[in-house]
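Notes from the pairing session

We agreed to fold both candidates in a single pass and log them together. This is the raw record for the first candidate, unedited. Please don't reformat it; downstream parsing expects exactly this layout.

Candidate A
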Amino acid sequence: LSTVAGLYRVPNVRFDTTIAYTNNPYSGSMRGYGNPESTFAVESQMDDLADRLGIDRLELRRLNASKPGDVNPQGFVLTSFAMRECLEAAVEEIAKDPPPIATGWERGVGYAGMFHVGGGARIYRSDGCGAIVKLDDFGKVTLITGASEIGQGSETVLAMIVAETLGVPLERVDVINSDTSVRPWDVGTHASRTTFVAGNAARLAAEKVRTQLLDMAAAQFDEPAAALGVKGGWVFFRRDPQRRVQYEAVARAGHFRDGGRVLVAEAFYDPPTTMLDKDFQGNVSAAYTSAFQAVLVDVDPESGRVVVRKMVSAHDVGRALNPAAAEGQVHGGVHMGLGYALSEKLVVDRGQVLTQTFMDYAVFKAGDMPEIVVRLIESVDAEGPFGAKGLGESGVIPVAAAVRNAIKDAIGVRFHELPITPERVRAALEVR
C-alpha cells in the first residue's frame, strides 16, 4: 500500500483491503515486496484514465507526477525525486532506431512509472547497520560490515565507498561480511537498503579512520591536521601537494612509538525515519526513488504471441556509484518483470503446486530477451552516501505494467490479469 500514493500527486487517498485465508503453501519474500502488483494496477489505470479523458497518456503523467519537496498522504517526504526526468529519458530513447516489424503483426509502445523506497524501509524499530573499518601498517584497509552479500554487488560498492572516503586505492580494501563471529549487527538485506544504509555506516566509520590518520600524521610532522589531506594512498601537505608520504608509512610510524594507537573505528547508521502508525502514517524511508519504463512490443493476432522488441529503463539512482553494477541490477529486474508479465504463472490446485519444474513454469531464457537500454538518472540525494539511493528492487517493478500498456496500444485490448499469455491474447481478440 505504501507505494500506491507516491508516484503521482494525489491529495486524497483511501485504502480498502481484504485479507483472505487460504490453504495454499506459504509465500516468501519476492523482489519488490508487492510493488510490482500495485504498480501494475496503478499504471494500467493511468493509461485507461487517459483514454477515458481523451488526454495523451504521457501528458497525464507529466501533469500529475510527484516532485522533490512533495509529501504524500502517508507522510512520505520526497527529498530527491526524478520521475519527470526518467519519463523524458525513456520516451526519448524508445523512439530511437525502431526494429522492423513482420507482416501482419501489430506494434505498440507502452509506458509505466514506479515509486519505491530508496533509503531503507523502517519495518522494524531499527533500520540500522553497523560497520568497522581498520587500517594496518601494510596499507591494507578492512571493512567489516553487517550487510550480507547475496549476489547484488554490495561488497564492491561498499569497498568503493570506503576507498573514496579514505582516499586509498580500491584494490587495498577488503570486505568481511559473512563471518557472524566478527561482523556487527544489521537489520537485514531487503528493501533496497544496502547501498544507502550499509553504505552510510561504512562511510561514517571510514571518516573516523581518516580523521585518526590525519591526526597521527599531524603529530608526526608537527603540522595541524587541517593542513593535511589524503588522496591516492598518500598523505599530502595541502600547501605543497608534492610533499607527501604513503599512508601506510604514517600508520607504521604511529604503531612503533611510545603511546601508539591502532587505526580502527566503528559506526552505526540508522536512517532518520519513522515506522508507520496504526493509520499507516509515517516517513518510512530516508529517500524515495522513481523510474520510468518504455517498451516496444509486436503482437501476432493469429497466434496471440507477444514479442518484446525493445525495453528502455530509466532509473533515478541518486548517484551511480558503480554504473556497471547498477545497469546489471536493472537488466536482472527487467528479466524477472518480463516473466511476470508474459509467462510465469504458479498454478495451485487444492493446496498443491502443479507447476513444479521449468517445463511447466516458463521463465524467460537468454534467447527470449529483447534489447535493453538503461538510463541512470542522477538526482543526488543529500542523505545518501555520496548522493546514492537504493536500486535493488526497482528494475522489476514497472515492467509488467509497461508491457500490458504496450499490448493495449498494439491491439486495443485491456488486460487486467497476469501473465498475458498467447491464449489470453487470442481469447481477447476473438471477443474484441
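Candidate B (folded immediately after A)
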Amino acid sequence: MQYRLLPGTGIAVSNLALGTMGFGTETDEAEAFAILDRFVEAEGNLVDTANVYGAGTSEELLGRWFASRPAEVTDRVVLATKARFGTGPDTNEAGTSRRNLTRALDASLRRLGRDTVDLYQLHGWDALTPIEVTLRALYDAVRAGKVLHVGLSNFTGWQVQLAVSTARALGLAVPVTLQPQYSLVSREIEYEIVPAALHNGLGLLPWSPLASGFLSGKYRKGEQAGTDTRAGAGNPMNEHIFSDLAAKDQNWATLDVVREVAAAHDVTSGQVAYSWVTNRPGVTAPIIGARTLHQLEQNLVAGDLTLSAEETARLDEVSAPTPNDYPYGPFGTKQRERYLDSSDQAIGELF
C-alpha cells in the first residue's frame, strides 16, 4: 500500500480507502471484521462510512470492531463518515441544517464508539439550508473536538466553489476533500467538478470506481448477469444501474480495453479500473467496496499496480465522454480558449 497526504491536513492516508456501505447488510459481521483486519494488516488506514449505510448498521458494526481490537490497531485508522440524507420519517432528519448535523454527528459518534471522527463529510448539497449555516455548524463541531476535518460529497463544481469560498471568507473550517462518483464509465465530473476541486486543493475520494461492479469483468455483452454478481442478486437499484450501463456501447468497448490491459499484467479487470482512477489528477484514494475478503484481496493489488503511458492513453481514449457541442464540446471550448500564437486563435470561422 502506498500513502498520500490528505490535502491541507498533514495526515497520510492509504491510496485505497475501504468503503463500508454493505457492512451489516450485504456483508455479515464476521466477514466485515475479517475485511477490516486484512485492510489494516495491508497498511490501509482510510475507512469510509455514512450514517445512512444500512440505516446505521455500518457505523454500529465499525463501532464493535473498534471496541474488539487493540488500540495499536484501531489508532491507525483514519475514519470518515457522512451525513445529509434522511434517517427517519421526520422531515428535519435530513439535510445540512445545524439541527440535523449536530444530532447526526452525535448519533454517529455513539454508534462508532468514538469521541472524534477524522473526516466529517456532507453527503450532498442541501438547497434548503444556507451554506453559511452548514459551515458554521461544521466549524463548531471542529472546535468542540468532535471533528478534525470536513469534506464534501456529490457537490457540483459551483457548489464546491461556493462552499470553499464562503468558509475562507468567514474564517471557518475549509473542506479538504470531495467524494464524487468517478470511474472509466463515469467521467463527466472532469468538465467542472474536478477542476473546481483541483483549483481549491481538495483531494478526491471517488466512490463506485468499478461502476457498481460493471468494470469487474464479470459481465458479458448480451448475457444475463449471474446470480453471484451485484446486478444479478435481485436488488432492484443495482439492476437499474446495470441496465443503464449495459445500454451504452461505449461502456462495453471500454470494458474490452480494460480486459486487454488486465491480461497483459495478469491481473483482474477490476484492478486495472482501480489503478486508472487512483492515478487520475487530484485523486487521493478511490473507495473500494469489497463485499467479501476475497474481493478485498484482489482489490488491494490495485494500489501498487502501475499502468504504462500507452495503456493509460488507450483507456483515456476509449472512455472519453462525448459532450454536446456546447458548453463542453468543441464549440463551447473554443469560447474559452486563447493562445499566444495568433495563428492558433479562432476568429471569424468560429461563428
